[in-house]
DNA sequence: TAAAGGTAGTTAATCGTTTACCGTTAAGCG
DNA sequence: CGCTTAACGGTAAACGATTAACTACCTTTA
């Protein structure tokens, strides 16, 4: 059986209140140093472990943060890691949920308040946030959205994907591309749309014909397969702006396999700036997300609201910036 | 304010017991269909969300699983993803903890029972398991260890890293290497040791001089930096067996940067079989972990024990197998 | 007609803490 | 000596569910 404060109290002929006050650290009334020590000592001897479930029931705090992400692809994992580093000193645990693969993310979001977490971080998950809020208008769990910019109330750390995309496509044109394509995945969410808008705007301004290649998923295998299919039926574009680095790496692999040279035949630019892009034989140009700043601010906003639920919502818009590497540098 | 079953009961002039029985799905006594519908309807109208904290306090079940991993490097993330896929149909949430970066993993493991999770999956974390058990001898939370094989009681899905390493190093010798090195990280844990043993045994049997290169961490940047340092002072080995794929990719990058050709000058073999290894210009040979099987069995064992705590512990030892790709194939 | 059994729902204890609000004791003070 | 006050700790009511045991009423059945 589990050791409870009652067991300790009985053993010492004290009340549970006294034991609780010592063990929880917050002594609302005076407890003598001698008693404190006796309690601490006995707790250690008996192997007492506080029951956080019971504690949470009365305090309303679980010390758990929930992270909603689309997937746990490398980019998202980098974010998870950075967030964990931020949170750790404050003693929170992290529950991670990848919503895209979730069989019923809608019902999950609707019923989410049942978990009683202390805060929610929504990474590029505006759909989930919307469903959650609509189903629970009266719930006020601290929530911060981070990721791609979109119209949003409440705390928010956004990244301007549009101008990042513009920068990338302009760079492709400057590198000499005349028919650069946009490689994206099927499911149209706001991240893909923002980058699409940037791509289209530059192409139109340059008077060039846009070309969009659509793969099933935003993963490496999917992009690789789609590029193979595409190249069997069509001429090769001379540039590739990709929805994310995963797709860029997948496409790159397909090009290698077909003997197409990068960057001479095709210049490639990805998005996100995951670590993998630096470790290819020909490092990948990419629009780097300011993940460190994003996580730092995101956690700052969330913690502020946890400590004081009534502070005014804060919103920040960060810039993504292009990093040019070999995959788009022609001599 | 939050809606409770008491609110529903009051509104309908029923007892909380009746409401609870309907809402929790398990009706131990008869409830008329009419009442059932009224309760369900009212719960929906009032936006009732069950309080899982309160439920957990009485049932002793939180529906939360904890995953202990060393880090969230790509290999571990693949495992996390696979485990989530397994667990999802059963309605469990996952709390992820990366222990290596944890400022005080020891205290964390000692006090872990406070979280009251329903089960623990320890991925390559024997140290944590040991500390946890020693500090909590009477606690019987279902726990399954998965990963590298080591002496272990309780449920366990292991992988025979030793023979995987042997296979890899023998392959390097067959590819013509005469002084292949083992690239590993500083902190000696059982995973590194098992692979080291395999390396040493093959080298000794072949009458060759072992050579171990030690980086600070098992990450790409660390391996890359260490290889640069090493090559400034020493001649280049003609083969590289790496602790994991991360280090292999980092080392590969360093070699590229120094103009050393792979596989002609150096043949490389990594370990784990992460997806990245397939997406390099020159795909990486690697000892693939049977992650899918590992996760499938791991979850099966854990679920079995959750449902019936007294079943006999089950242990399985899987094989890792070498996949030869371009990075070690000489013509 | 009395016992048995089924149906529908209630009572109240319980899970392990926290915490607002009360005692009790003894020292301090005029 | 009587009163105040600080020091130390206890009482008991939450928190929001679950659940064993029980009541009350209505039908069967022998």
Distance between the termini of chain A: 73 Å
Average predicted local confidence, pLDDT of chain A: 95
Q: Which strand order do you get reading across the main beta sheet of chain A?
A: 2-1-3-4-5-11
Write the element-wise H/E pattern of chain A from the N-terminal end onward: HHHHEHEHEHEEHEHEHEHEEHEE
Computed Rg of chain A: 26 Å
The CATH class label of the largest domain in chain A is Alpha Beta
Largest sheet of chain A: 6 strands, parallel
Helix content of chain A: 40-55%
* Chain pair forming the biggest interface: A-B, 53 and 53 residues
Supply the CATH superfamily name of the largest domain in chain A: Response regulator
Entry keywords:
homodimer; 331 residues; alpha/beta; 434 Repressor (Amino-terminal Domain); Rossmann fold; 3 domains; elongated; DNA-binding
Folded structure, characterized:
Two copies of one chain form a homodimer. The first copy, chain A, is of the alpha/beta class and 331 residues long. Chain A has helices at residues 5-12, 16-24, 33-46, 52-59, 74-87, 105-110, 126-135, 161-174, 190-205, 220-233, 245-257, 291-307, and strands at residues 64-69, 93-98, 119-123, 143-148, 155-160, 180-185, 212-215, 239-242, 267-272, 285-288, 315-319, 321-323. In chain A, the strands form two sheets. A six-stranded parallel beta sheet of chain A has the order 2-1-3-4-5-11, sandwiched between helices. A six-stranded mixed beta sheet of chain A has the order 7-6-8-9-10-12, sandwiched between helices. In chain A, α1 (5-12) packs across α2. The longest helix of chain A has 17 residues, at 291-307. Chain A is elongated. The model of chain A has no long low-confidence stretch (mean pLDDT 95). Chains A and B meet through α4, α5, β2 and α11 of A and α4, α5, β2 and α11 of B. The first copy, chain A, binds a DNA duplex (30 and 30 nucleotides) through α2 and α4.
């Amino acid at each position: 059986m589990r050791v409870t404060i009652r067991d300790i109290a009985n053993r010492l002929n004290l009340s549970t209140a006294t034991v609780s006050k010592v063990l929880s650290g917050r002594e609302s009334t005076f407890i003598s140093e001698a008693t404190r020590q006796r309690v601490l000592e006995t707790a250690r001897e008996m192997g007492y472990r506080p029951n956080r479930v019971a504690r949470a029931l009365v305090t309303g705090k679980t010390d758990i943060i929930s992270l909603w992400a689309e997937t746990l692809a490398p980019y998202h994992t980098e974010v998870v890691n950075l967030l964990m580093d931020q949170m750790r000193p404050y003693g929170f645990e992290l529950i991670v949920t990848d919503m895209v693969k979730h069989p019923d993310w809608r019902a999950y979001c609707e019923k989410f308040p049942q978990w009683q977490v202390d805060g929610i971080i929504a990474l590029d998950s505006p759909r989930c946030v919307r469903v959650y809020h609509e189903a629970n208008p009266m719930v006020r769990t601290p929530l911060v959205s981070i990721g791609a910019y979109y119209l949003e109330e409440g705390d928010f750390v956004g990244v301007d994907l549009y101008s990042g995309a513009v920068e990338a496509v302009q760079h492709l044109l400057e590198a000499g591309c005349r028919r650069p394509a946009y490689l994206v995945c099927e499911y149209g969410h706001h991240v893909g749309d923002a980058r699409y808008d940037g791509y289209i705007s530059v192409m139109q301004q340059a008077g060039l014909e846009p070309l969009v290649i659509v793969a099933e998923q935003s993963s490496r295998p999917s992009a690789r397969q789609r590029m193979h299919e595409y190249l069997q039926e069509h001429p090769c574009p001379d540039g590739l702006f990709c929805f994310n680095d995963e797709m860029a790496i997948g496409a790159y692999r397909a090009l290698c396999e077909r003997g197409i040279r990068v960057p001479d035949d095709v210049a490639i630019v990805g998005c996100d700036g995951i670590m993998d892009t630096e470790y290819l034989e020909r490092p990948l140009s990419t629009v780097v997300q300011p993940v460190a700043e994003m996580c730092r601010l995101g956690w700052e906003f969330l913690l502020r609201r946890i400590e004081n639920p009534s502070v005014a919502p804060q919103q920040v818009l960060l810039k993504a910036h292009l990093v040019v590497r070999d995959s788009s540098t022609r001599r």
